[in-house]
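Blinded run. Sample ID left blank on purpose so nobody reads anything into the name before looking at the predicted structure. Input follows.
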Amino acid sequence: EPGQASLVVLFASTDYDLDELGRAIGASFEGVPTVACTTAGEIGPHGYTPEGLTGFALPRDEFTVEVACIDDLQQFEYQNGGAIATKLRSRLENRAPGARGDNTFAFMIVDGLSRMEEPLTAAVHLSLGDIQLFGGSAGDGGTFERTHVYWNGEFRTDRALLTLIRTSRPFLVFRTQHFVASDKRMVVTESDPAQRVVYAIDGEPATKAYARHLGIPVEELDAEIFACHPVVVKMGGEYFVRSIMRHRPDGAIEFACAIDQGVVLRLAEGVDLVKNLEQTLGSVRQKLGPPELIVGCDCFFRFVEAQTRDIQGEVGRIMRDHNVVGFVTYGEQFNAAHVNQTLTGVAIGARRAA
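Blinded prediction complete.
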């Protein structure tokens, strides 16, 4: 019942007429904060559910929610992010005092083609204190043309939503990736971080250097190769995956994250995606008990790899068995970082005994 919900979250295929869908969502959930976005695939009760609509609602008696809509992302400035998060937190505090990391988490949805995730995530996270953040960048079915975020009756581009969720239930914010660093290292010698383009690696055209490290001719580079062979960068003692979106005729490589000049990249080696997912969700279950809901933001490049390796059915089954609802993204957010080729999410446990 919409009246019993404090928040409705929906993930939609771009096959829908978004104007029509926006009006239908507004009419169906009037008076309830509703956030939604377009996806590169939906995750629901049957695992991966392409060309569909999936979602969940949080009950009002156990969840207090505040949402901030950030429009015109291209004009976004770092200091604004902090102000938005601080204001949102004080709105939540007014309704439910004492919001802390053990009772509150943040969920973000961003236009997945805005290229604004890095400054937005970093700025917002800094002002949240010990409250953990996770999220995903909206998709458009793998066409990389326009991704939309819904708020207040309409789907729009160049928009992000930051949702703060305070709950009496136990929860766990997590991320996982199934890539480790190999010993093949390369240095970015020319790049445009704002556009996420790397022009040169080790002093030669980026595609040439990347193909050389893989031991294949440049002509063989394609989406499957990129999905199965990303690179990793080291930040704060941890390795983070940097996905390759596409390569260009001029020898440049477009990434799904900003990459600065001078950064050391290592070719990544994949470990078993299925086993990694089972272990991750198994350890979530161990810490929390059987989750009633896991909200998952799963990278498009993981989805492509699962297709390439023909393991989509298995991955979908694991998701289904652990009550995952979510979407296939163009990038994921985890605390202060915009990341790729990961699954980020929150697991929500059963009601605490009185």
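Unblinding after everyone has recorded impressions. The longest helix spans residues 78-95.
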